[in-house]
Structure formats: C-alpha cells, structure tokens
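Recap for those who missed Tuesday's class. We walked through two folding examples back to back. For each one, the amino acid string is listed first and its predicted structure tokens come directly after. Nothing is annotated here on purpose, so try labeling regions yourself before you check the end of the notes.
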Amino acid sequence: MYKQPRLFIILGLAGVLVAPALSGAIELHVTTDVVTLEGVTLGGEVAIAWAGKTHGVVPFSSWDTSVICDDDRDGTIVLSGLKPAALGGSIWAIADITSGIAAAYHLRGSLGTTVNITQQALESGGTLEPSQTISAPGGRVSLLLVRPGVGAWHTEVYDGTENDHDGAQDHIVMTKAALLAPAGRAPSAPASTQTHDVVIGLDSRGMIVTITTIS
C-alpha cells in the first residue's frame, strides 16, 4: 500500500479571538486535480485534513493535514496538483482559524460531486467540556485542535498504539492537548481545551469526520 507523503505547511496565524460559528459556510469545489475552498476569512488561514483511497491492482491511501493562508485576500484558497484517483471518494474537514467556522465534505462518485456532511460531523462529534485530552473515533486519526483567533495544533494517532492515551484498542483515539504540534506560528499547544475550541477528527481508515465543539 502506498502512502502519499504528509505535508504540513508553515504559515502565520491571526490574533483576534472570535467565537466560532459552526456551519457549512466554507464551500468546497473540485475539478479534476484542483480543490477550491470559498468563504474563508479574507487574508486568514484554514486548517485542512483530508483522506482518500483507491482500490485496484495496487490500492493506495492518501491523507494530509495542512494549514494554508489566503495570501491574496480574496476569501478563496486553491489546492492544485492533487491525485484525481485519490480525490474520488475522499473526505475533507476544514476549519477557518480566524473565525472557528468548520465544515466537512465527502466527494462521491465522479469528481465534482461534493456532499456537505458538516451536520453529520457535528452530530457525531457533539459538545464537550474543557479537558486536558482530545479524542475522536477511528483507527488512524488525524486530530486537529483549533482555537479561533489563536492557532491550530495537530497530531496523528493510531488506535491502540503507545500514543493512544486511552490505553486500549477500542476504535477511539485519545491524546493530551499539550502534546499536539503547533501549526505555523501558533504558540506551544495549550494544556487543555477551552470554550469555543473546535476539535476535528478525521479517520483515514474508516473515512469518518467528527467535529466537536468545546463549551
């Protein structure tokens, strides 16, 4: 099985605290090997996690976590050079780091057919109180913690391994917030989550997205 190399793009972060408005306001569009995100904060950054897999003579999986800036301040971010075979059937989770707006999409069938699964992701993730740990369902999970106006932190956790802090192979991964890696110019990871934080889990094995709000 081939795993596409992971890439984390280092970029600056905004510094104004804004309570998140969790809705599907960020739109995702696909044409062949290009993904376009619309509705992001002008000049802001977005945290993106996605995963795709193809089945055939040589099956492979691709997954990536990145932070990308709207450098030209037009509210649109374009990702190009992606593998069309991996994009078909892929899942996407996006969070605007400035506003806290989060969205999730599933590309079904032929390229260009996008389904907004934000509501399902929100219902699956639910709402939690502040904690020193973050968690999400899955076997190989990209975890993102977004604090609106402050920054984003990330890690990847495999269920039942030493970095899965619940100590069990139970299709739930857990890690300490303080151990997350900062994205770009984000400060060191916080010791715990706080109200208005957004936690995204993207399981690249089960192809599941969860969006959890902290309140």
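Example two. Treat it independently of the first, because the proteins are unrelated.
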Amino acid sequence: YLQDVILPRILDDATLASLNTIIHTNNAAVISLLKDDACFIQDLFSRMRSPNISMESKRELVLFLHEFCTLSKSLPLVQQLRLFRDLSGEGVFEIVSDVLQSQDRKIVSAGTDIVILFLNQDPNLLRSYIVQQEGNSLLGLLVKGMVTDFGEQMHCQFLEILRILMDSFTMSGAHRDVIIEIFYERHLDYLVDVIASSCPSRSATRTSPNSAVVGGNTEGHRIKPEILLNVCELLCFCVVHHPYRIKCNFLMNNAIEKILTMTRRSEKFLVVAAVRFMRTIISRNDEHLIRHVVKFNLLKPIIDAFVENGDRYNMLQSGVLELLEHIRKENLKPLVIYVTESFSDQLMKFEHFGSIQAFKLKYQQYLESADMKLSASVPDM
C-alpha cells in the first residue's frame, strides 16, 4: 500500500525505481540464503508431510512455500530453474497434490499458483511427475478442480494449468503420448458428462441461468455456467492440439452429441460456446468427423438454436452464419447437401441473409454439376 499508493504521490520516478531495485535485491538475497541451506527444503517438506501438524500450521507453511516460490523470480533465470528442479526432486508436487484436496480455498489457490509458477518456469517438470504412477492422481485433481466452484475465478486457473500441461506444441515426444493417453482414458468422459448432466433434456424446461444440478460423477454439485464454458473451451483446445486422439474418442461414442446439449441452456454464451465447439470440429476438415456429423444429424441442435433465436442480432446469430460461411467457402460438399436437404424449411425465413443465399446457391451448383455429369454419362441414341 505504501509503495503503490502513498509513495508515488511524494516521490519521483527515479526514487521509486531505486526503491524497487532495493526490494528486488533484498528478495533475491533472502531466497538465495534459503535455497543454499542444504536442509531448508527437506525440513520444510518434512514438516508439511507430518501427520501431527495442525491445520493452522499447515496453512502457514503452504502460504510460506507459495511466497518462497513467488519471490524466487527475483533470482537469475539459471538459479530459478535450478531451484525449481530441486523443489521438484524433493517432492513439491506431492505437497501440491495434498494441498489441492484441502477445503481451505486460500491454500488451494496458493497450490494452483505454485503449479502455474512451475509451468511458466519449465512445464516438463510437472509433466515428468505426472507420467509417473504416483503422479497420475495430480492430473485428476486438476481436472476435478476445474469443475469445482472454489470461487474467485479459480476454475480459470485450473483451465490455464491444463492448457499449458497438454500443449502439444511444447511437449516432448516422451511426455506427449503418456499424458494425452492418461487424460483421454481417465478424464475426458468425465468432463463430457459434466456438460451433459448440467443441461436439460429435450423435453425438460430450460434451467435457471445461475446453476444446474449435476448428477453422476459430480455427486449432485451445482456447476456454474462459467465452469461449463471453461470445460467447453478446454475441449476446443483438445480438438486443435490432439486431433487424432480426440477424433477416436468422438467416433467411438456420442461425446459430440452430449457437448451440444449446451444449446439447450438458457445462457446464450453457453449456446455460442457449443456453436464454437462445432466450428472447431468442422475446421479440422476431417472426412471421418464430417461423415459422423452427417450420420448422426449433429448440426440439428445448432440450427434449432439459430431458428429459435430468430432475427435477434447477437453472437449466436453471427456464430451460426459464420459456421455456414465456413462450410460453403471450404467447399465441404457433404455438409452443404446435408444442411440444405435437412433444414431448408427452417432456414427459408432467413434467406434475407447473404450467407444463407450463398449457401443455397452452392447447393444448387452441386445439383447442376451432378446433372451435367449424369447427362455426359448417358450415350446418345
């Protein structure tokens, strides 16, 4: 408070810069003294693992570890990396796994901050731990944390952790296959079911905009719409980063249909998220997924939501029109034929939109081309 509010009113920029340098230098000196103590990390973790530790003492130690890791950014980069490797070797992720199971939101938040600090330093430290048998449970805790309402937007922190952890562009081959396999085998279905069980059936009335009761794996907890949005964002991320693995999952079950139940929610931003999810799938231009969409009539909930929205100009309308534009411009013939022949009556009242007109014209061009080929193949008598 003194540094950010009081001092800027009475000190010039040069003096403030000098004070910041002093603070930074002192932080680095304190962290250096602690990390160079051969017994410091071992003693700290030993106390945190003790079965006799009180909840208050454990809370203070977790917050101390969080501050220690945060202030380590004052060290030179090489020393930061060495320190984080030492912490990893001494079992910091086991400590974090225990912290994430706490009912105390403050120390859970500290635990996620520690994980993010490690991921920003070297994601492979956490990945190396997760691919070990004892580390598998940490990935499960991170997934569960994303659908748990800890408050204060903490589910966004869990989303960011999972994104960095499973970023295919930064994963080495040794980690990539194992982590992706663990996630898809053990956790993807859980996330899909969270969405499906949070959305009303076709015959049910729309749920309250604030929450939905979730059964099954989530044990009747109420899932906030913002959490469902994050789950959908993670699934879109997976479609882009793990196209082959997630395609196998989608083709073997009805996961896409379950995710599209979000179009039945009353919150428009969740309906838009479902449209964005379908747009992400179609953008892969994968013939197997396209056939799957056609076979199981998976664009129906998208078109139904578009029709129900009417002429209201909003993100939902723009999202569906852009989806149809993409299908037309990419010349995805099976989808053009499927949409036109399945939903032409519903879309007729929207023909004042240029996108709908162009889509219909593309379908007619396909028919004319087919007629010309048929005529050319018939011999003259």
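Answers for example two:
The mean pLDDT is 88.
Residues 354-377 form the longest helix (24 residues).
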